[in-house]
Amino acid sequence: MRFVQDCIFCKMANGEVPTDFVYEDELVVAFDDINPQAPVHALIVPRAHHTTPGDGVGAELAAALFSAIPSVARAKGVADSGYRVIINAGRDANQSVHHLHIHILGARSMSHRMLRFLDESE
């Protein structure tokens, strides 16, 4: 399993930084985002370091990440009301932690508009 020493998500996923998991299995963990963008904002993170979905993520890990989504939604109480799933990959997507992670956002009604770009005014 690949780890990066200065990666906060590697440290959290593998117990170096104490974290309350809302979900965990042998390949992935999930925990609440420290800077929530919605009333429910959890992150699903692989235990092994991958920067983006294109960074050697095999079928087993991809399945584990995707399979964790409904479990996290249930654990956070948004499975029935609905939730949004987001992966930011790279600079233009404004990926702030360069360890692959999936955002689960919910517990409020969200806009139909999926994207807003930095150069657009509201």
Explain what you see.
- With 122 residues, the chain is α+β, with helices and mostly antiparallel strands.
- It has two helices and five strands.
- It has helices spanning 8-13, 59-75, and strands at 21-24, 28-32, 40-46, 83-86, 102-106.
- The protein has one domain: HIT family, subunit A.
- Strands 1-2-3-5-4 form a five-stranded antiparallel β-sheet.
The gist of it:
With 122 residues, the chain is an alpha+beta fold.
- By CATH, the topology is HIT family, subunit A
| Percent of sequence in beta strands | 15-25%
Q: Could you tell me the radius of gyration in angstroms?
A: 14 Å
Largest sheet report: 5 strands, antiparallel
Order of the strands making up the biggest sheet:
1-2-3-5-4
Uncertain runs are: none
Order of helices and strands: HEEEHEE
Please describe the structure with a list of short key phrases separated by commas or semicolons.
HIT family, subunit A, 20% strand, single chain, alpha+beta, five-stranded antiparallel beta sheet
Topology of this protein?
Layout: H1 8-13, E1 21-24, E2 28-32, E3 40-46, H2 59-75, E4 83-86, E5 102-106
Antiparallel strand pairs: 1-2, 2-3, 3-5, 4-5
